[in-house]
Design goal:
mainly alpha
């Protein structure tokens, strides 16, 4: 009974987060705003549904499934990486290269060069 209640709650939570993420994807205007809907809300929604599936397989079917666990791990690893790549692609397409701060290296711009980062780099080079 408790497992069924937890499964039901996770499915409702997953559906609500999926709906919020989908509405956010449609309603937000700017690409950088739109990036948050699928990477945050929808990831939590899919994670809740997969967690409900894991609990159902383990308690009701007595056959724990590792496929859902692997999907959850893959989802939570790849979602932030994908968001990072999409945001960098957007920045590279919309911001002129001459307005970007210097990187402090020979490679092209990828991150913001701050005084804290420069201090950390200098400390790494001084370490034995």
């Amino acid at each position: 009974m408790i497992a069924e209640l937890v499964i039901s709650m996770l499915l409702v939570i997953g559906g609500v987060f999926g709906l919020i993420g989908s509405i956010g994807l449609l309603k937000l205007r700017q690409p950088m705003q739109r990036l948050h809907a699928p990477t945050k809300a929808t990831t939590v929604g899919v994670g809740a549904v997969l967690l409900a599936s894991i609990i159902y397989a383990a308690t009701v079917l007595d056959d724990p499934s590792w496929q859902e666990v692997l999907i959850v791990v893959f989802l939570f690893i790849t979602s932030p990486i994908t968001a990072n790549f999409l945001s960098k692609a957007h920045l590279h397409r919309t911001i002129p290269a001459d307005s970007l701060p210097p990187t402090g290296t020979d490679s092209p711009w990828a991150t913001l060069d701050t005084e804290e980062a420069a201090g950390a780099r200098d400390a790494d080079h001084r370490a034995p």
